[in-house]
Design goal:
This protein is mostly helical. The protein has one domain: Aldolase class I (TIM Barrel), CATH 3.20.20.70. A 3-stranded parallel sheet has the order 1-2-3, with helices on one face.
Length: about 100
């Protein structure tokens, strides 16, 4: 009840980083959070693919991606702008698909 801004829902236990799959029951976690606060809940921690972002966007108020972007920057160094832009565009499209699916229900 004391949260302000937004709640950061952790999608996986352990250290942050890229995950091939997210096994946490995110809808159940969000139900518990929403039972005690009305602030938005964004989910992150291991989100690394557009498919993961789309799945999370279907149930959460926001999607947080960090390590996947850092990995792209580390891989491409000074030439990372285009790969990061491309990755973020793919995330945006996935999140938009989730929003369109939600508006059709």
């Amino acid at each position: 009840r004391d949260a302000e801004g937004f709640v950061y829902g952790v999608s996986s236990l352990g250290v942050t980083g890229v995950r091939s799959e997210i096994k946490t029951d995110i809808p159940a976690m969000l139900a518990k959070v929403r039972a005690v606060t009305s602030v938005p809940c964004a989910v992150g921690f291991g989100v690394s693919t557009p498919e993961q972002a789309e799945a999370i966007a279907r149930v959460a108020d926001g999607v947080i991606v960090g390590s996947a972007i850092v990995r792209i920057i580390a891989e491409h160094k000074r030439a990372s702008i285009e790969p990061v832009q491309s990755f973020i565009r793919s995330l945006r499209k996935a999140i938009d698909r989730a929003a369109q699916g939600a508006s059709n229900t």
